[in-house]
Design brief:
It is a single chain. By secondary structure, this protein is mainly beta. The protein has three domains: 112 residues, Sandwich (Immunoglobulin-like), CATH 2.60.40; 139 residues, Jelly Rolls; 210 residues, Jelly Rolls, CATH 2.60.120. The strands form seven sheets. Strands 5, 7, 8, 10, 16, 17, 18 and 21 form an eight-stranded antiparallel sheet that branches. 38% of the residues are buried.
Length: 521
C-alpha cells in the first residue's frame, strides 16, 4: 500500500474516532492514569496516591488491617495529602518516624535494636509518614541505645526537655508498659537507682520519674503524673511530657490538653529550688516491653515544646500535576474540567489548567497556569491540542483533615480538519487537466490542496507548472494543471484545510483520473 494511501487511511480513522466538531467529548483521569501521549504520569509533591478504600479514616482512627488492600491489588486509587512527619531541629535529641522496617533515629544519636516479635506497620496503619511501630505483648520490644544522647548520656545534667509520641493502644490494660528507662547515679558514696516509665493504669497514662530529677547534693525524689482522660482503645492520641528548667514545671498533655502537672522543686511548688534531670549511667530505653498496639513519631527534644503539632497533614499544601492529555486536534476547545473531590472539615483545593499546541516548549510555570472552578465554563481562548491540570490540596487549619481527589474529567470540543469535497471532476486537455470540486461548507475553511501523481494513491507528481503535489488553490474550487505529459494517465485527489496553524489537511476526496491529449474527444 502506498504512503499516501496509508496517510489517507490514518486520517480517515482519526476522523472516525474523534467526534465531529462542536460535539462535546470527555476524558477522565484518576490517580493511576497515564495516557500514551504523556511523557510522565502524575507529578506529586506532598501528595500520595493511595487505595480509595483507606483514604478517609475518621479523625484519629485507623482501618483494620484486614481492610487494607495489598499495594498491587489493582484497587481504585485516589490522591490525598501525604501525612506530615515531625522535623529534626537543632534541639532534637531523638526522632524516630518508624517508616523503615526497624526504625532509625534521624539525629544519629541513638542506636535502635528490635527484639522479639516487633513488627513494622505499613503506611495504611500509621498516623504519620509511611509506617509505625507495631507491638504485641509480651514478646516484642524496641531497645534504644543512647550512644550520643545529650539528655540520656552518661553523667549528663540537662535543662528543658520534651518527650512526645503518637499512641494507638489495642486494649489499654492496666500494667502495660510503653516506655521504660532504668539507670543509676552516684550521689557521693551512695548509689541511687533511677527510673523513667510510662504505663497504663485504670485506662489512664501514668508517667513516673524516680530519682530522675536530682536535688542539690543528691538524694531521692519521686514525681508522678497521672492523666485525667481515659485512653480509648484503637484510637490515635498524642502524648507530651515537658519540663521547664526555669520553674521546675513538669507537665503532661494528651491531644494538646493539660492532663497533669507537678514541680520538680525542693518545695514541690513553683518558687522552690529546681531539681534538674541528672543521668548516671547511659542505660538503654525499652519501648513496648509489655504493650500491644502501635506507636508513631517518637521525639525527644532539649527544649520546651510550647504547641505540639497535632495535625495529621501539617499546614502546608501539596500539589498534583496531571499527565499531558492529547485532545486529538490543534485548536480543540477545552470547555470545562470537572473534579470528583471531597473536602472534609475546612480543607480545600485550588485548580489550574493550561492548554496549547506545542507542549515540547512547556516548562514548570510556562505557559502560565490559569485558575478555574471545577464544572464551570472555561474561556473561548482555552484552545489547543494538549491540556494539563494542576491541583493544590490544602489541609484544614488544624491539619487534621485533607481533601481526597478521586478523578478529574476534561470536557472538550474537538476541532478536526474539514471534510473533503463531496464531488470532484477532472477534464483533460492538451498538456493539461482541469479539476473542479464542490465547496466544503465549513465555517473556518481556509483552502484546498490538490494532490496528483501517475499511480493510484501515489500523489508525488512534479510536472505541473503550478508546482509539485500538492498544489494549494486557496479558497477557489477549481484549477487547471498545465505542463502535463500527453498520453499519460494522472490520478487526482482533493483535501481541504482550515485556518489552524500549522496547516491541517483533512481526508482525501474520492480519487479521479484523466489522460491529457492533443486532441480530446
Amino acid at each position: 500500500m502506498t504512503t499516501k494511501r496509508i496517510l489517507a487511511l490514518i486520517l480517515a480513522a482519526s476522523a472516525a474516532v474523534c467526534t465531529a466538531a462542536g460535539i462535546e467529548t470527555s476524558l477522565r483521569l484518576d490517580a493511576s492514569s497515564r495516557p500514551a501521549s504523556s511523557p510522565h504520569p502524575w507529578i506529586l509533591s506532598g501528595v500520595a496516591a493511595v487505595p480509595a478504600a483507606g483514604a478517609v479514616p475518621a479523625a484519629g482512627a485507623v482501618p483494620a488491617a484486614s481492610a487494607v488492600p495489598a499495594a498491587d491489588s489493582g484497587a481504585a486509587r485516589v490522591l490525598v495529602l501525604e501525612p506530615a512527619r515531625y522535623r529534626w531541629t537543632e534541639g532534637t535529641d531523638l526522632l524516630v518516624h518508624f517508616d523503615a522496617e526497624s526504625g532509625w533515629d534521624e539525629t544519629g544519636r541513638w542506636r535502635i535494636e528490635p527484639r522479639g516479635s516487633f513488627k513494622h506497620a505499613p503506611a495504611d496503619l500509621a498516623y504519620m509518614g509511611s509506617g509505625a511501630a507495631s507491638f504485641r505483648a509480651p514478646g516484642s520490644q524496641l531497645v534504644l541505645h543512647p550512644e550520643k544522647s545529650s539528655l540520656f548520656g552518661a553523667g549528663s545534667v540537662s535543662g528543658d526537655f520534651s518527650l512526645e509520641f503518637w499512641l494507638y493502644p489495642a486494649n489499654v490494660e492496666s500494667g502495660e508498659i510503653l516506655f521504660l528507662w532504668k539507670g543509676a547515679r552516684r550521689d557521693g558514696t551512695r548509689t541511687t537507682t533511677q527510673q523513667v516509665s510510662a504505663i497504663f493504669s485504670r485506662n489512664r497514662m501514668v508517667f513516673a520519674f524516680a530519682n530522675f530529677f536530682a536535688p542539690p547534693g543528691g538524694g531521692a525524689f519521686q514525681l508522678n503524673l497521672t492523666g485525667t482522660s481515659l485512653l480509648v482503645p484503637r484510637t490515635w492520641s498524642h502524648h507530651l511530657v515537658r519540663f521547664d528548667s526555669s520553674t521546675g514545671l513538669v507537665e503532661y498533655l494528651m491531644n494538646g490538653v493539660s492532663e497533669a502537672a507537678a514541680y520538680a522543686t525542693a518545695t514541690g511548688r513553683e518558687g522552690g529550688a529546681v531539681h534538674l534531670p541528672s543521668v548516671g549511667t547511659a542505660s538503654p530505653v525499652t519501648l513496648g516491653q509489655n504493650y500491644t498496639g502501635l506507636l508513631d513519631e517518637l521525639r525527644l527534644s532539649s527544649s520546651w515544646v510550647e504547641r505540639p503539632n497535632l495535625g495529621r497533614y501539617g499546614t502546608e499544601p501539596g500539589s498534583a500535576v496531571s499527565p499531558l492529555v492529547d485532545l486529538g486536534w490543534n485548536n480543540t476547545r477545552l470547555a470545562s474540567v470537572d473534579a470528583e473531590i471531597r473536602t472534609p472539615g475546612d480543607s480545600g483545593a485550588a485548580f489550574f489548567y493550561r492548554v496549547g499546541d506545542f507542549p515540547e516548549t512547556w516548562r514548570t510555570d510556562s505557559p502560565e497556569w490559569k485558575p478555574f472552578r471545577p464544572g464551570g465554563s472555561l474561556p473561548e481562548s482555552a484552545r489547543g491540542r494538549y491540556a494539563q491540570v494542576r491541583v493544590e490540596l490544602y489541609p484544614d487549619p488544624r491539619g487534621a483533615d485533607g481533601p481526597i481527589l478521586s478523578s478529574i474529567t476534561l470536557r472538550y470540543l474537538p476541532d478536526p480538519p474539514p471534510p473533503p469535497p463531496g464531488e470532484v471532476l477532472a477534464a483533460p486537455g492538451d498538456g493539461r487537466v482541469t479539476l473542479r470540486w464542490s465547496r466544503v461548507p465549513e465555517a473556518d475553511l481556509a483552502g484546498y490542496l490538490v494532490y496528483y501523481g501517475t499511480s493510484p494513491g501515489d500523489y508525488y507528481g512534479r510536472e505541473a507548472v503550478q508546482g509539485a503535489s500538492p498544489v494549494d488553490t486557496g479558497n477557489t474550487v477549481s484549477i487547471t494543471l498545465t505542463g502535463l505529459a500527453n498520453g499519460r494517465l494522472y490520478y487526482f485527489a482533493v483535501a481541504s484545510y482550515d485556518a489552524v496553524l500549522p496547516r491541517r489537511p483533512g481526508e482525501f476526496s474520492r480519487e479521479v483520473s484523466a489522460r491529457p491529449a492533443r486532441n480530446v474527444p
